[in-house]
Amino acid sequence: MTPKPTRVTNRIRTLRTERGDLTQADLAEKLGVTRQTVIAIEQGKYSPSLEMAFQIARVFDVPLDDVFHYGEGDAN
Amino acid sequence: MNNSKHNLPREPHRPADDEPTVMGMDERAAWVQIFAFAITTIAYLAVVTPRVANDPIDEVEWVVPMLWALGLSILSVIVGSIIAGIGGAIGLTMRGLDVDTELSSDSRDKDIARHARLRTYWATPVVALGALILAMLDVDTFWIGTFVFVISSIGAIADAVVRIRAYRRGFVA
């Protein structure tokens, strides 16, 4: 399996599951991006801009760090 | 007449999670760019190399082949991208997926294009510096023109390769 290019992880899939009826296509529409982009974010292949990260958090009505995490001790 | 028996295009449906996506327009254009520049550059070299081998260097006719190569590169990128886009649109329509939302470009495409530009920025100074050095050495214009053309083509191909890699494996902006 190809290693993920970023140490940023996210809980978007989990949050979508908790919402029940929010598909990748629905989220893509809310964010104004393609479904490919939502899939790439979920798979850790693309780190969205800070602005889009806030938009994603707003869709789920949770704080930003409930959606995105950065690996411990990797601040450099 | 019963239309249900005919393969009429389906109304776009909402794709389910993880339903296979299609290659977006920008990734298709990157593939076209690789093939267009590789083929035209190889063709140019195939035409001029025998002339270099057989004729005095200052008599080698290279301008017309290069103009053809440049023109065909640009034309094939444009036409190839259009054809690739039409092919993708037909495939999506057959699968009942919305063409606009699946094929369009978004911020990820822009980030990937920027990422590729940064990774292949070397081509511009290499071309400029190389051409300057060749001019200072007073070599024939054939070598300067060919050097600029070939390195620029390699830069364009590298740009497309970086973009495709970013689409497939991901990237950090």
Got a strand count of chain B?
A: 0
Level of helix content of chain A? Answer: 40-55%
Task: Give the overall shape of chain B.
Answer: elongated
Mean pLDDT of chain B: 89
Structure at a glance:
The complex is a heterodimer of chains A (76) and B (173). Chain A is built from 5 helices and 2 strands, in the order E-H-H-H-H-H-E. With 76 residues, chain A is mainly α.
What does this structure look like?
The complex is a heterodimer of chains A (76) and B (173). Chain A has helices at 12-19, 24-31, 35-42, 50-60, 64-67; strands spanning 8-10, 68-70. Chain A is mainly α. Chain A has a two-stranded antiparallel sheet. Chain A is globular and about 30 Å long. By secondary structure, chain B is an all-alpha fold. Chain B is 72% helix and 0% strand. Chain B has helices at 25-54, 63-95, 99-103, 107-119, 123-136, 141-169. In chain B, helix 1 (25-54) packs antiparallel against helix 2 (63-95), helix 4 packs across helix 6 and helix 5 packs antiparallel against helix 6. Mean pLDDT of chain B is 89; it is low at 1-5. At the A-B interface, helix 2 and helix 3 of A face helix 4 of B.
Pick out its properties.
A: 76 residues; mainly alpha; two-stranded antiparallel sheet; 51% helix; B: mainly alpha; 72% helix
Secondary structure elements and pairings:
The complex is a heterodimer of chains A (76) and B (173).
Chain A: E1 8-10, H1 12-19, H2 24-31, H3 35-42, H4 50-60, H5 64-67, E2 68-70
Antiparallel strand pairs in A: 1-2
Chain B: H1 25-54, H2 63-95, H3 99-103, H4 107-119, H5 123-136, H6 141-169
Helix pairs in contact in B: 1-2, 1-6, 4-6, 5-6
